[in-house]
Design goal:
With 130 residues, the protein is mainly alpha-helical. It has helices at residues 2-21, 34-48, 55-85, 92-129. The chain crosses the membrane at residues 29-50, 57-74, 94-117.
Length: 130
């Protein structure tokens, strides 16, 4: 799972950089870097998780940031859909970037939860064998 955390972090960091530097110079906003702000702590946690003794706590920290990122991005997506349904103006590029962040973070959280469940089952099986 540390590799998945690092890949997720890389995707979020690249998305943030693309969102910021890919916009026209007069249209840049610091909010475009929000995926980067979630990717960095996930990446740091992923690096710590490379060491066995830190793995459990580091991955729980990583999935916490992933979950916060997913909630934030899906919340923003719902707000944008509300604007769309009312015929209000919205930034299509920003809406797409937020949706991508939501998908990346949600996928990461799902993979982490599945991994945590599998680890718990392995622990129970090992204890039953003793």
């Amino acid at each position: 799972m540390p590799q998945i955390a690092l890949l997720t972090a890389l995707l979020l960091i690249l998305e943030g950089l693309y969102g910021y530097f890919g916009a026209a110079a007069d249209d840049r906003s610091m909010t475009a870097l929000i995926p980067l702000f979630f990717g960095v702590p996930i990446g740091i946690s992923g690096l710590f998780a490379m060491k066995d003794s830190y793995r459990m706590h580091a991955m729980h920290a990583a999935v916490s940031f992933g979950l916060l990122g997913a909630f934030a991005a899906w919340g923003r997506t719902v707000m944008t859909v509300g604007k769309m349904s009312q015929g209000m103006e919205y930034n299509q590029r920003a809406a797409m970037m937020v949706l991508i962040m939501a998908i990346i973070c949600t996928g990461f959280v799902i993979m982490c939860v599945r991994s945590f469940i599998a680890a718990r089952k392995r622990q129970r099986a090992e204890k039953a064998e003793e």
